[in-house]
Structure formats: C-alpha cells, structure tokens
Amino acid sequence: MKALLKVLRALLSKKRPEVDPGMNYLVAGLGNIGAEYASTRHNMGFMVLDAWSEASNASFSTQRYGDVAEVSFKGRKFYLLKPSTYMNLSGNAVRYWVDKLKLPLENLIVVCDDINLPFGTVRMRKNGSDGGHNGLRDIEYRLGTTSWARIRIGVGNDFHPGSQVDYVLGQFSDEQKAEIPGICAKVIEGIKNYSTIGADRAMNFLNSRQK
Fold first, then answer.
1. Do the Cβ atoms of 137 and 130 come closer than 8 Å?
2. Active site includes 133?
C-alpha cells in the first residue's frame, strides 16, 4: 500500500506537459493603430482579425507590441496579433510573439493588403518576397528569413503615380465595403484549412478565382 501511494504521489507531482507548439498558430494581421486608420485599405489585415474575433466572441487585450486575442478551432489555438508598432515596424511585434510562443515558423501566418492585386483577390504563399510591402519587408528583416506563410488581399491600384501612400491610407468605396465581410470570411476559412488539411490545400482554396 505504501509503495502504491509513493507511486501515485510521484505521478501527481510531475509537471503537466506543455501544449504541443504544433497545435498553436500566430496569425499576424498587419495595419496601423488609431481610429483614423481603422477602415483604410492598409488595415485589411486588422479587418480580418477583427471579423474572426467577433465571430468567435473573443476579445482583444493590449499586450506587448500589440493587441492579442485567442480563438480555437478543432484543437488548434490561434493567437491573433494586431501589432501596435505601425506598419513599417511590424517585424518587432511578430518576432517577439513568435519567440514568446516558441512557435516554428511554419505556424506563422501574416495577413496584409496588396496593391498589386485587384480588389478582393486573395493569394496565399508558403514563402516569398515582400513584393514592395513595407510590413512584410520588416518582418523578413527581423526574422532573417522569408520562409513563413503570407496571405495577400488585393486592394487594387487605382491611383496616380506618386499618390500610393494616400491611396493605401484612403477608404474603400461603398461597393467595396459591402464585399469586405465575405473576403474576411474566406481568409479565415483558408487559415483554418492551413492548420487542419495543410498549406497546399489551403492555397488551392484561397487562390481560386472569386465567384
């Protein structure tokens, strides 16, 4: 009896194993903090995470380098990060949270706007160049690699030469605003697919032509 109690005490005193980081994901939506930027084209990444948190009844809390919410899906946990570092320094926030969560880079997904794609077009890649996007460029610099997934959401490029900044910091048209909920829903579904059925099938889903 004493031997059995000793074994039970030893088992109960053992630390519980940490959650497998393979089941945790960091989804960084890029944008700029502040009410004046809330609905601008450059904040498309924030819009996706806001839609996801609202649909999941999750709340963002202000933490180091950004606002963070946690949502779950089929045993996976997603940390939704809206960096507070402003777009051009997004890498500071992403690197901090990747390190804090001890995640492999294949469990990082970055969502951002893209002026090189027509409005509403979505493209996912497992790695690649920054494509001229300052937020992606800083993340690549801070992580020292391009080997992480990114989802680009087209916002179009209907601007005159030299007015790119005004365009990305401008508002969507009323017609475009009506389509944003559907775009966000598709991106969220694609990220869930990435975590459950793999990157290639998620890309097939997200990169398909909009109906």
1. yes
2. no
**Domains recognised in the chain with CATH numbers:** 21-206 (3.40.50.1470)
* DSSP per-residue codes, 156-211: -----TT-HHHHHTSBPPHHHHHHHHHHHHHHHHHHHHHHHT-HHHHHHHHTSPP-
How do strand 61-63 and strand 24-29 relate by DSSP bridges? unpaired
Read off the pTM: 0.88
Q: What is the pLDDT of residue 18?
A: 40
Tokens, residue 37 = 């930027």
pLDDT in the model for residue 12: 46
Catalytic residue among 41, 42, 186, 192: 42
Strands 76-83 and 66-73: antiparallel
Distance, CA of 82 to CA of 62 (rounded, Å): 9
CB distance 160 to 166 below 8 Å:
no
Residues of the chain predicted below pLDDT 50: 7-8, 11-12, 14-19
pLDDT at 19: 42
Determine the length of the chain: 211
